[in-house]
Specification:
The longest helix has 46 residues. The chain contains 9 helices and 15 strands. A 7-stranded antiparallel β-sheet has the order 5-6-7-10-13-14-15. Strands 1-2 form a two-stranded antiparallel sheet. The protein has a two-stranded antiparallel ribbon with strand order 3-4. A hairpin with a 7-residue loop joins strand 1 and strand 2. By secondary structure, it is of the alpha+beta class.
């Protein structure tokens, strides 16, 4: 700018020396229209020169060019601003999607308590406790649940799994106090899940609930990591195939002779699992009773009827779900052809899981 003002200051000396009519013709293009050409002298505006106090002039055409550059600069600023707004909108949209995903994963598939007709009939020996993902009946005498019951669907299993917590804690809903983490420490028994953590991996809430000590029973390591693990995986495969299943699991608390921990947690000799496909016509059920020990036998050899589990445990399963006539028929027989077993899981148990 200083250089231009100084140059026009020198040209001013020549223009003052001659009258306007004697100056050479200098066409100036005004605006962007080339047809608007004039032979008039350029219009000048005051400009402070290189030295303070010295005035010079800037032709109007140059000033208009400067305005054009400012206009282009303004358009560039607006364009950059628009790009920033679009980028911010994209980031906000992505963040909301991620937040929604987190919210969905922390909002479990919950069946209202008043609609849980699949629960076993309550007994005086235990207290029913309802959680978001499952219900249980806690036996204070043996410091564990007599049964846990829940619904597992294909939609729940297809959800992206939340991280496994591995944080065992007391159940805040058991008013008498549940067993503790330290009851099992150094006992030689593992903290075996009744409701598998993998079945509750569709939300952070249900995952945390699966590690409540009310959902834990003493299991031998070879049993927990072996045949019990295989059965849990097999049930999830059935859920993928059939869409939705009712599941009831628990320890057999008859003839308990051994205990672990300060709270005297009873050590069951057997565990059971009942699976019901109520959507099938007629409904189909299958049950298992497994000894709490290492096993190399196929799961098929442990199949029993629901009636036999009821006689063993004294629990009335699915009492409110079906009419007595239908319940009697479903619980007294097992259609083994309806339940397909994955031979690969058995091979994995024999070759790997039994040795962990």
């Amino acid at each position: 700018m200083v250089y231009l003002c100084s140059a026009f200051l020198l040209s001013k000396a020549d223009s003052v020396a001659q009258p306007v009519e004697q100056r050479p013709f200098k066409p100036w293009v005004l605006g962007s229209n080339p047809s608007r050409v004039t032979d008039e002298a350029p219009v000048s505006v005051p400009c402070r020169g290189f030295f303070y106090g010295v005035n010079s002039t800037i032709p109007l055409a140059y000033r208009r060019g400067r305005y054009r550059r400012r206009e282009r600069s303004t358009r560039g600023y607006v364009l950059r601003l628009l790009l920033m707004v679009v980028a911010l909108a994209v980031v906000l949209w992505y963040g909301l999607r991620q937040l929604k995903a987190v919210f969905d994963r922390t909002t479990p598939y919950t069946i209202p308590v008043e609609e849980r007709y699949f629960l076993p009939a309550p007994k005086s020996s235990c207290t029913v406790v309802h959680h978001e993902g499952f219900s249980l009946c806690y036996n204070e005498k043996y410091e564990q649940a007599e049964w846990v019951a829940y619904v597992l669907t294909r939609t729940m299993l297809k959800q992206k799994n939340v991280p496994r917590t591995d944080w065992f804690e007391e159940d805040p809903k058991v008013k008498t106090g549940s067993a503790t983490y330290f009851d099992y420490k150094g006992s030689g028994y593992t903290r075996g899940h009744l409701v598998p953590a993998a079945d509750m991996a569709h939300s952070t809430i249900t995952m945390r609930e699966s590690f409540y000590m009310s959902n834990i029973s003493p299991q031998k390591r070879a049993f927990n990591a072996g045949i019990w693990h295989e059965l849990e995986k097999q049930v999830r495969q059935w859920v993928f195939d059939k869409g939705m299943l009712y599941i009831v699991t628990g320890p057999v608390l008859q003839n308990i002779r051994h205990f672990v921990g300060k709270n005297r947690v009873g050590i069951p000799s057997h565990f059971y699992k009942i699976v019901l496909d109520y959507q099938e016509d007629p409904p189909q059920a299958i049950a298992f009773v497994l000894p709490n020990e290492l096993s190399t036998r196929p799961l098929r050899e442990y199949i029993v009827t629901v009636d036999s589990v009821e006689r063993l445990t004294g629990i009335d399963f699915f009492a409110e779900l079906m009419l007595d006539s239908l319940e009697e028929r479903v619980e007294s027989q097992v259609d083994t052809a309806f339940w397909e077993f994955d031979k690969k899981l058995y091979t994995l148990r024999i070759e790997k899981w039994n040795h962990r």
